[in-house]
User: What shape does this take?
Amino acid sequence: MIRTLLRFFASGLLMGGADIIPGVSGGTMALIVGVYERLVAAVSSATSLAVALARFNVDEARNHARAIPWILVLPLGAGILVAAAVGARTIPPLMEAYPQQMNGLFLGLVAASLVIPALRIKEFRPVYAVTAAAFGVVTFFLVGLPVFGAENPGLLRVFASAAVAICAMILPGISGAFLLKALGIYEPTLEALNGVIELNASHLPYVLTFGAGAVVGLGSFAKLLDWLLAHRHDITMAALLGLIAGALRALWPYVTPDNSLRGPAEGEPIAPVIALCLAGFVAVMALIWWSRRAHRAEASAGA
Assistant: This one.
C-alpha cells in the first residue's frame, strides 16, 4: 500500500513538473507512468459527482464517489500541487539561463514518450497512420504560431485561458504551459502563484479565478476523452501519437524570434544540448520500463 501511494505521488511530481514547462505535457507524463486511462476516468467520475451533488441526488453522488480511485487521485493530486509550487520557482529561471540546454533535455524526454501511445494501439490499421499524421501536422503548425503576452490580463481572460490550457493535463502532446504562453498569461500566472506561496493576498483573486476555469475546463473535456478511450481507444491513441510528435517542434532548441526553426548559430551550445537530449530520452525509456514492470507486478498480485 505505502509503495503504491509513493509511486502515485512520484507520478504526480512528474506531471506537475511537466505542466510548468512550456512544451512538455502533463498528459504525456501520465502516459509514461501508466496512469493515463485511470486518471481520465477518475476526472470524469469526479465531474459526474459534482453534477449529482448540484442536483442534490445523494444516491447518484454516492455511486460516482465510489467509482473514483481515491488511492490514485489523492497522492497524485498532492504530487502535482507540490511539483507545481516548486517548479514555479525553479524551472523558469533555468529556462531563462539555459534555454537551449533545457529544451534539449525536454526534447529527449518527450521524444521517448512516443513509445507509449504506439504500444497501446492493439491492432494496426492504415487509418491510424493517417490519423496520427494529420494530428501531427496540425499540432506542428499550431505550436509554431507566435505567442503574445499580457502584463495584467483580465479575470475573464484568465478564466477562459485556464479552461483551455488545463485540458493539456490529460491530453498528451499539448503543453498546458505552452498554451498559457500562447494565450499570453504564462508569466502572470507564475507571478500570481509565487505571490500566493509568499502569502501575498493581492494575487488570490487571480489564482482563484484560474482554479475555477481549470476545474470547468478539465471536467468538461474529461467526459469526452473518457468516452473516446472507452469506445474509440486505438484511434484515440493514434491521435495522441500525432499530437506528441507534432508538439516536438515547440522543444527544438534553436528558433528565431518569430518561432521559426533554425540550426545552431556560432557560439551556441551543441554538445551539451545533444548530451541532455540523450539523457532525457534514456531516462524516460527507463521510467517506461519501470512503470510497465510495476504494473505487471500489481496485476500479478491482484490475480
